[in-house]
What does this fold into?
Amino acid sequence: MSRKYQKYSEEFKLSVLRDYYSSGMSKKACVRKYGLSGDGLLLSWFRKYETPEKVVPLHKETEDTEMANRSKDSYAHENAQLKKRIRELEKALEFSRLETLSRDMMIDKAEKYFDISIRKKSGAK
It folds into this structure.
């Protein structure tokens, strides 16, 4: 069963591309949403309406100017906060490791004491 050739208006093509870029959906999802014949059609529209500038900026442009105007004190303060946060996360990670180790030891002792296997076997159905 073949599809008939369908001609799309420039407005429709641009609205599809605008929706694709603004929503962040996948190409396949965009094709399904608009009932297009396939990814190739969408890719041809990308090539046809390609612009040399970025369509969706990944960061705010004001961040560059804000960083240039910051003082050394604010950098030092931010650096201290980040180091403190790293220490907190390392403590939490170590606690989590100890918790996992103690849980494993408890399961081992229970398996030995009750003479049953508690852990799931890899070949179980």
Notes: Residues 53-62 have pLDDT under 50 and may be disordered.
